[in-house]
Design goal:
Order of helices and strands: HHHHHHHHHH
Number of strands: 0
Distance between the termini: 21 Å
Shape: globular
Number of domains: 1
Structural class: mainly alpha
Largest sheet: none
Strand content: under 5%
Number of helices: 10
Length: 175
């Protein structure tokens, strides 16, 4: 993604942010299916905001009312924000790691494990207290999807600008 006016590092960070949002949006699609099928009771962003986030807003009833009426949108926007942050963090990894095929999968799983062992217990979320293997498996799966979409083909981490635009037929032909 060639962004005029950005140096190589900032371009990589911007790319990571955009890919992080896209990956979080992709997770949203998968989560619609897993919650719709009853495999997941409550998604992590939904749990964070409903069990811990909205309670803080009780001091501001107007804001609480506004957000409660737009709860689904607030949860999704928060999740996409988390995804953007994760994308920026991913872009900060060394380029040698970013080019490896497995990095996205490992990164996606690492973000899930970090949430499960730190964020959920610290916030006292119900998910940390209940053991539902199928739900945990679905969360692992959607985080793998996040990592795969975030990493893409790894070429965005290459330092040479416009590499794919100059000779796109080589990529298609396998050269």
């Amino acid at each position: 993604m060639a962004v005029p006016g950005l140096d190589e590092r900032n371009e990589r960070l911007a790319t990571g942010m955009v890919r992080g949002v896209m990956a979080a949006m992709t997770m949203t699609g998968l989560r619609q299916i897993t919650t719709g099928l009853g495999l997941v009771d409550q998604t992590p962003p939904d749990a964070v905001l409903k069990q811990r986030g909205f309670g803080v807003l009780v001091r501001s009833p107007r804001l609480a009312y506004f957000l409660a009426r737009r709860q689904v949108a607030v949860v999704e926007l928060a999740h996409w924000g988390f995804g953007a942050g994760g994308g920026v963090a991913f872009a900060l990894l060394p380029p040698s790691l970013l080019r490896r095929r497995w990095t996205g999968v490992v990164y996606g799983l690492a973000t899930w494990v970090a949430f499960e062992v730190s964020v959920a217990p610290v916030l006292g979320l119900d998910q940390a207290k209940q053991i539902r293997p199928i739900e945990r498996l679905m969360f692992a799966l959607d985080h793998v999807l996040y990592g795969v979409v975030l990493a893409g083909d790894g070429r965005w981490a290459l330092p040479e600008r416009g590499r794919l635009l100059r000779r796109p037929w080589r990529r298609i032909a396998g050269r």
